[in-house]
Design brief:
Layout (H helix, E strand, L loop, with lengths): L2 H35 L12 H26 L2 H4 L13
Helix pairs in contact: 1-2
Length: about 90
Amino acid sequence: MNKKVNTLLFVLGATLFNIIVTIACFFALIILYIRFVIPSLPEESHAIGFAPLFMASIVITFLIYRVVLKKLIKKYDFEKYFDNIFVRKITNKN
């Protein structure tokens, strides 16, 4: 496989990883919310906490992703296996 295919597979894998971790964090936070917070709240305000839980799961996922990516960068030489996505190649216009 060449660098472009490796890059595409990495981006797809990282996206799938982000989605799975976000869903897992959201469900874990919902379980904790239902178990510990809902019993102490009035019945009318039970649904209010779900939006902050979703935002918290996104933040937690971002932090987990950064830690995992740093470990992968230390373990593998990304320049050897992956192509640059956002950097333009400089061409000589003579």
